[in-house]
Amino acid sequence: MKKKIAVLVMSYGTPESMDQIEAYYTHIRRGRPPSAEELQELTERYETIVGGVFPLREHTNKQVAELQRALDSLDDGCEYVCFQGLKHASPFIEDGVQRIADASIHEAVGVVLAPHYSVMSVGSYIQRAAEKAEGLGIRMRFVKSYHTRPELIEAYTERISESLEQFEGGKTGVHVLFTAHSLPERILEMNDPYVDQLLMTSRLIADHAGISRWQFAWQSAGRTADPWLGPDILDVMTDLQKQGVKEILACPIGFVSDHLEILYDLDIEAKQHAAKLGIHFERVRSLNQDPQYIKLLRDLVVELKDRPPGSYEM
Length: 314
Description:
Blueprint: E1 3-11, H1 21-28, H2 36-50, H3 55-72, E2 78-86, H4 93-102, E3 107-112, H5 122-136, E4 139-145, H6 150-163, H7 170-173, E5 175-181, H8 194-209, E6 214-219, H9 233-242, E7 247-251, H10 260-263, H11 265-277, E8 280-283, H12 291-304, E9 310-313
Parallel strand pairs: 1-2, 1-3, 3-4, 4-9, 5-6, 5-7, 7-8
């Protein structure tokens, strides 16, 4: 009989319908309901981008389905079964681990749909899954990060190359902004690798794509009393305009799917800001179900399945 390996695919999560937005937002706020104004603003943003379809959930479902197909095609003596675990929506991470136990599978690999590690992001996913798995007697290995993998670099390089065709200046005239979700500045005091990993990915992509005019910018910072990592992409765009830059290409390497931070924060908010500045602004396509990305996820699972339980930078 084939050895059964569970694959827990973890992601941030999103509502599945408009009537779930308040519960979703409340969970993000650790049980504190949003104010009427905050709820209205988030609802309006979703109404602007989704048209009744919530893209992150749809893309996550498709990514898991494609990963399952990729694993099914292997002939390595193992049977892989994919489960989902979401941070802020059902099925929650703990639900996914429970379903693994209910399927009587005792060996598992956990991977987050985010290439870069921070204790506040990927680290929290792993902690929740590991604690639940330990209580259920499931041996789990986790992919900690995969920010330098060739498939990831190549996929973004291809997207930059195709996007440059939309600009008159081509490779020499466009300024590339690599972006990721900002986090509270206090991670800098924790020797957190998040910033360094993002900069490393940016350099690898820029080198591979032959891009010399680039820099890193943050986006989608939370509205809390704590300071968040900056500079924000909108501020960077304003500074670049003052320097005479007329063409900007955003490459959001911190995200692997189309969702609110892509479809609103970049495609609407950043694009509107660029128009006011007289800048031609575009962004690269998201990975979504890109075959190279699915192959990368498949390879990560296979490479980890026989390692001792724990977390691994890949």
